[in-house]
Fold this protein.
Amino acid sequence: MTPDPDRKPTREEMRATGMVAVAVLVFLAVFTLGFVAFS
């Protein structure tokens, strides 16, 4: 059973993906700031 590639993601999936993306960006920003501040 293969998922339909043309299927639109649900609102919950969009929100989950967005939150993961924001979390990754925040982590990278904090890591970069910490690396610069303590280097």
